[in-house]
């Protein structure tokens, strides 16, 4: 499908339901256009009547009644046009705002249903570009261009019809330059489109880069990379400037070009009118009236062309935005397994059976992994960085699906369990705990909004964070926000653990974050983890072996293979890979 067609289909989808409003706008635009088209006719008539009256002054008769009534018709028709345009503008603004609102809402809801793979492979800043840059372009174009497109097209067609009705010869003089205009416009528009498309892509790249650099500001400062960061920014910024300049250069060329051609056209029209008078094809008065009317027609004929070209870049940017949004709508969604088995708890346990997995085709990460965790037991997954620990979590929670083998809950493949019940039964404490804007209480209640205040306190106590929260001036009502974060990494993780305790999941995945916290917080996290794990079926992804010594089973992963399994004592006795991992780590404690 061509890209413009894809964008147009996207717009049809969102504007279809506002068809009544669109019809009203079209109707009012036609009235407004009609008045503009008829206006010159009355003006021409006024001049003709005035000329006729003037020639009769010498005969002592001065009858200006026809002239005055022609003037009144002209004023009336222009006034009607302005009122119609104003109402159309209001109606259109309303449904444009509603339609872009729908687009924004659907885009956001789509994000909630999309595969994690999409977010893992697209920069946050690029995704944000869809919300600001692309949707803004669409709104601006719709608000400013839609009315123009309707009214100017009608004006264009109306002018042609009127001109031919008034005088065919003069009409031919007026439209004579049209083929030339069309050819020039097509050539320039093609060029402009290429760069306007590129402009949006480059803005998206720039947003991606800025977002990434802002998130990594501390790393940049600590490594003294500010200059390099600005240098790279210049590179992205220059790309935007170049694409913007070329896009605007080509689309901007059309306007002055058409202005120039419209002047040429005026000369042709006046010359044509004079020729009609000189060759006695029409009387002086009629000829002058025709010249005045067609000078005006020449303007109304050219106005749509110049107006449409002046908003061309706006329209093209909206089409690019529509295409980019339509592309997101096309992306695959999570399989909700609507008719699958509803998981209502765990009776036997969770298993990974001969699991093979690759994020990218041809680059396998897990090579036939078997892990088994019985109900109520805790299994720790350890291994060097990049060995595939987080990947296992991604598969159990169905962020990704296995390529071969299966992950089962009580023997049922996760792909046969309704996604909702799976996620309801699986709780995850991520390494990077996220807090949302709101109070601390809101954050703890995130997974269970109907929890009582007492339940929140009990969960916070279990997670070892109650004392800290109580020590804050506003306690549980303390506002949390991106700009106002009073929490350390460890405290954030404790709040995240409290959140998980409150949801009371059957199966727990804990990606421990004890590696970058102080020893006091580490001890607190350890206690909180022990509390949340107690009696619960769980996977613990461990970075520090000290924290998992009491696990029922330790699975050692290396390069995507399980190379050892057993409890701590068994693995130490074995004097294998775990033994060397453990002794190495203890040497640094
Ligand atoms: N979204 C992704 N796309 C492509 N490759 C990925 C993706 N996520 C992880 N990988 C690759 O998969 C491999 C395993 O990564 P994983 O995050 O599971 O390791 P890990 O054992 O959890 O590491 P760490 O201890 O550092 O957290 C790595 O080689 C990594 O580069």
UniProtKB/TrEMBL annotation:
InterPro entries: AAA+_ATPase (IPR003593), ABC1_TM_dom (IPR011527), ABC1_TM_sf (IPR036640), ABC_transporter-like_ATP-bd (IPR003439), P-loop_NTPase (IPR027417), Type_1_exporter (IPR039421). Residues 350-584 form the ABC transporter domain. It comes from the Bacteria. GO terms for cellular component: plasma membrane. Residues 23-317 form the ABC transmembrane type-1 domain. Its main location: membrane. Coiled coil: none annotated. One of its GO terms (molecular function) is ABC-type oligopeptide transporter activity. The chain crosses the membrane at residues 21-46, 66-91, 145-164, 170-189, 254-278. It is a multi-pass membrane protein. SMART domains: AAA (SM00382). It comes from Lactobacillus hominis DSM 23910 = CRBIP 24.179. This is ABC transporter, ATP-binding/permease protein. It holds the Pfam family ABC_tran. It is found in: Cell membrane. Keywords: ATP-binding, Membrane, Nucleotide-binding, Transmembrane, Transmembrane helix, Transport.
